[in-house]
Amino acid sequence: MTHSKKSGKEVRMEKIKKKPLINLMTIRKWHWMSSALCFICMLLFSVTGITLNHAGSIESSPKTIHLEGVVPENIRAGIFLPKEQKNMEIPEAVLHWFSDNHKLKFYYIQAEVNDTELYLALPRPGGDAWLSIDAATGDFEYESTDRGWISYLNDLHKGRNTGKAWIYFMDIFAVACVIFSITGFLLLQRYADTRSSTWPLLVAGLVVPIFFMLFLIHR
Fold it and tell me: What is the mean pLDDT of residues 208-218?
């Protein structure tokens, strides 16, 4: 019997085929790094997922602050109402007056104009506020509502009135979760031969939510 001797090139090709594209240490490294990055936010989103699902059962006691008064004439003299535009920025002198006299600081300064009224909407996570100023008389009305920490965290979960920075952060967090999930799947695949329940559990994780979506969700 004769044995054909493989060339050096064929041996190298076989080694390349046998060698995994990503070694086990690299997968483990990416998995623990992504899990460390995701841990706190994943816990937060899991808890707020429960609170959002049962929002009707969770009692809250909103706290409302209401102020009324008059902006001095020398301060409101800087308000020039546009004839055609429906929006304008509230002058800095007015903003400073509210800060000095009522300890109010506004992160939004673009107000809606309706005749002589300036209306400033001040949405935020876990609450909202508004300010109305009559440019002719100086009468103002301010109201702020705080719905508590649960509402605040729920709004963070939804990205409601959080600003672009938080939205970008959630995008980064989502990418980290994708990396965590993919590397977790690769690790499952590596150890599936020694853990017989791996694939049944994986299939169950796919089939159960599909079953709920098809048969148990009202349309």
Answer: 90
